[in-house]
UniProtKB/TrEMBL annotation:
<feature type="domain" description="Gfo/Idh/MocA-like oxidoreductase C-terminal">
    <location>
        <begin position="139"/>
        <end position="335"/>
    </location>
</feature>
<protein>
    <submittedName>
        <fullName>1,5-anhydro-D-fructose reductase</fullName>
        <ecNumber>1.1.1.292</ecNumber>
    </submittedName>
</protein>
<keyword id="KW-0560">Oxidoreductase</keyword>
<dbReference type="InterPro" id="IPR036291">
    <property type="entry name" value="NAD(P)-bd_dom_sf"/>
</dbReference>
<feature type="domain" description="Gfo/Idh/MocA-like oxidoreductase N-terminal">
    <location>
        <begin position="4"/>
        <end position="125"/>
    </location>
</feature>
<dbReference type="InterPro" id="IPR051450">
    <property type="entry name" value="Gfo/Idh/MocA_Oxidoreductases"/>
</dbReference>
<dbReference type="GO" id="GO:0000166">
    <property type="term" value="F:nucleotide binding"/>
</dbReference>
<dbReference type="Pfam" id="PF01408">
    <property type="entry name" value="GFO_IDH_MocA"/>
</dbReference>
<dbReference type="Pfam" id="PF02894">
    <property type="entry name" value="GFO_IDH_MocA_C"/>
</dbReference>
<dbReference type="GO" id="GO:0033712">
    <property type="term" value="F:1,5-anhydro-D-fructose reductase (1,5-anhydro-D-mannitol-forming) activity"/>
</dbReference>
<dbReference type="InterPro" id="IPR000683">
    <property type="entry name" value="Gfo/Idh/MocA-like_OxRdtase_N"/>
</dbReference>
<comment type="similarity">
    <text>Belongs to the Gfo/Idh/MocA family.</text>
</comment>
<dbReference type="InterPro" id="IPR004104">
    <property type="entry name" value="Gfo/Idh/MocA-like_OxRdtase_C"/>
</dbReference>
């Protein structure tokens, strides 16, 4: 197939540091046709870097979308504009990629689900964690029962957002420090962990969460702790703590305990997944960190080519976003919230779970 001629909307950090390097690696599949940014100068500067003629630089999105020679669009704008711009691009009849989250609230997330059919366009939500190598390896390990039946997991995401605010990082952005959307950093960053957990363990029956309120705008809580019950009976604890002290930062951890052993990922960038078996042996699996961006862009190319389905559609992302807001709802209501399954409690085949875990318990 010919190269996809891509129009880019939002030439900020995610474009420069994440999508552009992956697109460059896929240089035989993509060609950057046009750039659009709210601040024209920034897009113009980037165009110079890649030798793109200035006539292909816009600060008016409608003008860029009129171009018939643009095959597809990549949307990387602050979260509060994701739905509005996606709707505009879909209406223009362009296939597109939109960075996560698909929307900044549930009303827009619901409307997002109609876009693909209504305008007959292909849509991929760029949730890189669902395309990251480590998450796909762990999913395969869990599904193939490498550590037997999974009983429970614990996942922590500990960082220091305030320490990052003055550095050349994502936290420096005004829209992250004073978000105009509910959930702040929890929607922006914890969404990745939630996507990874749902990718690995499947649909979620319900969550019960607690939060320690804080006065700063970037996140409503110092820490959010949640208990999760998956539809397959797996239970887990997830903690999102973006207010840690930099020097005390413990490693981000993901530990999965099964009847025959344990899977341990110290950090998504460490490159090694450890498996510890109950009998005392262990195994290490190497992976390349941060491959999600390359993999998602390859998936999008293949989908436009007709050789693959899009893996992360709005329907897939919808459940991840819903879980973010369900956790926040659980904190404020102090109630258990059903995520993917409507109440009452679905039969989770307790007897089968007890039988499969019996050897572990003895
Ligand atoms: N998957 C991942 O790991 C990551 C994903 N992201 C996602 O990427 C998106 C962008 O984040 P990031 O790049 O960090 O944010 P930035 O603020 O760095 O960049 C956003 C860019 O969008 C431009 N913009 C804003 N509104 C419009 C508009 N209406 N039309 C055209 N351009 C517009 C901004 O212009 P101006 O400068 O004028 O405001 C800015 O250049 C978010 O959805 C975020 O969730 C971000 C980081 C990592
Ligand atoms: O998606 C992203 C990756 O994680 C960052 C936090 O660490 C976010 O701010 C960003 O939007």
């Amino acid at each position: 197939m010919k190269k996809i001629r891509l129009g880019v909307i939002g030439t900020g950090m995610a474009w420069e540091r994440l999508h552009y390097p992956a697109i460059s690696e896929l240089g035989d599949k993509y060609e950057i046709a046009a750039l659009c940014n709210r601040t024209f100068k920034d897009a113009e500067n980037f165009a110079k870097k890649i030798n793109l003629d200035i006539k292909n630089v816009y600060d008016n999105l409608d003008e860029m979308l009129k171009r018939p020679d643009i095959d597809a669009v990549d949307i990387l704008v602050p979260i509060e504009y994701n739905y509005e711009i996606s709707e505009k691009v879909a209406r223009a009849g362009k296939d597109f990629i939109c960075e996560k989250p698909m929307a900044s609230n549930m009303d827009d997330a619901k409307k997002y689900l109609e876009l693909s059919k209504k305008y007959n366009v292909k849509i991929m939500i760029a949730e890189n964690f669902r395309y990251n190598e480590e998450n796909n390896i762990i999913k395969e390990l869990v599904e193939s029962k490498k550590i037997g039946d999974v009983i429970y997991f614990i996942r922590n995401n500990v960082s220091c957002f305030p320490c990052e605010m003055t550095k050349d990082t994502f936290a420096a952005a005004e829209w992250r420090q004073h978000p105009k959307f509910e959930g702040g950093a929890f929607l922006d960053a914890a969404l990745h962990d939630i996507a990874a957990m749902r990718h690995i363990f499947g649909a979620v029956q319900c969550v019960h969460a607690f939060g320690k309120p804080q006065p700063h705008d970037f996140n409503p809580y110092y820490s959010i702790n949640s208990n999760i019950l998956f539809e397959n009976g797996i239970i887990g604890q997830y903690t999102y703590f973006p207010s840690g002290i930099e020097t005390q930062k413990p490693p981000v951890g993901f530990r999965i305990y099964g009847t025959n052993g344990q899977i341990y990922l110290e950090d998504k960038s460490c490159g090694i997944i450890n498996i510890f078996y109950n009998e005392g042996t262990s195994e290490q699996i190497k992976y390349t960190p941060e491959r999600g961006f390359y993999n998602e862009l390859l998936n999008f190319y293949n989908a436009l080519n007709g050789t693959e389905e899009i893996s992360v559609t709005p329907e897939v992302e919808y459940g991840d976003v819903k879980m973010v807001f369900d956790i926040l709802k659980s904190i404020s209501s102090k109630e258990v919230i059903y995520v993917d399954t409507p109440p009452p409690f679905k039969d989770i085949k307790l007897k089968e779970i007890q039988e499969s875990t019996a050897p572990y318990i003895q």
